[in-house]
Design a protein that fits this description.
By secondary structure, the chain is an alpha/beta fold. Helices cover 56% and strands 12% of the residues. It contains 9 helices and 5 strands. The two termini are 13 Å apart. The structure holds adenosine monophosphate.
Length: 195
């Protein structure tokens, strides 16, 4: 099974993806995590992307797709995958469709977490100032969030009609508390699996 979690930065995609891992044993693939690890390790990819990531811009489709193509070759993907933070452009969504089609698979559900802008700013501020500051990310500042939101609106929001047209988009009110959102997300997955 292949699930995509879609939503603006700070909408709770990572949190809900981790809950799906626990509930259903899926594999979470977060391009943000993979790219951050590349930056930390200082490898070739990391050097190319560091400044763009720090500024809250999008990494090129070409680089992200190289990363994703490699990752989807790993055998653990057979467990079923929850994509978190990917795809982020229509070109990435189209490429993912092609990659999956070549394997005889499809994207089954796209879950869109709807959260309003004001709440996003508050969430990011909290994430940036939370105790355990070492967990805070270098792109978790209000200024960079604004840039990430702009990138989301310009590049990622057009994915919503792309998946709506395919009849696989489920919208969830991401303003509810984490557990309630999680229950709704689980119901969507359960009902797909029982059909
Ligand atoms: P995230 O952890 O999903 O918020 O991603 C953090 C940062 O990684 C983003 O602001 C982008 O710079 C980069 N990134 C993650 N996923 C993608 C993607 N699918 N396409 C382009 N850039 C990405």
């Amino acid at each position: 099974m292949n699930i995509i979690l879609l939503g603006p930065p700070g909408s709770g995609k990572g949190t809900q993806a981790r809950r799906l891992v626990v509930s259903f044993g899926f594999l979470q693939i977060s391009t943000g995590e993979i790219l951050r690890e590349a930056v930390i390790s200082g490898n070739e990819l990391g050097k190319k992307i560091k400044s763009t990531m720090d500024a809250g811009g999008l990494i090129s489709d070409k680089l992200v797709l190289e990363v994703i193509r490699d990752r989807l070759e790993e055998p653990d993907c057979k467990r079923g995958v929850v994509f978190d933070g990917f795809p982020r452009t229509v070109a990435q969504a189209e490429a993912l469709e092609d990659i999956k089609r070549a394997k005889g698979e499809t994207i089954d559900i796209v879950i869109m977490l709807d959260v309003d802008d004001e709440a996003l700013i508050t969430r990011i501020e909290e994430r940036a100032t939370r105790a355990g500051v070492d967990e805070a990310r270098s792109d978790d500042t209000v200024e960079i969030l604004k840039h990430r939101l702009q990138a989301y609106r310009a590049w990622t929001a057009p994915i919503i009609p792309f998946y709506a047209d395919r009849g696989i988009l489920e919208r969830v009110d991401g303003m509810k508390d984490i557990k309630e959102v999680g229950r709704t997300v689980n119901k969507i997955v359960d009902s797909f699996r029982s059909n």
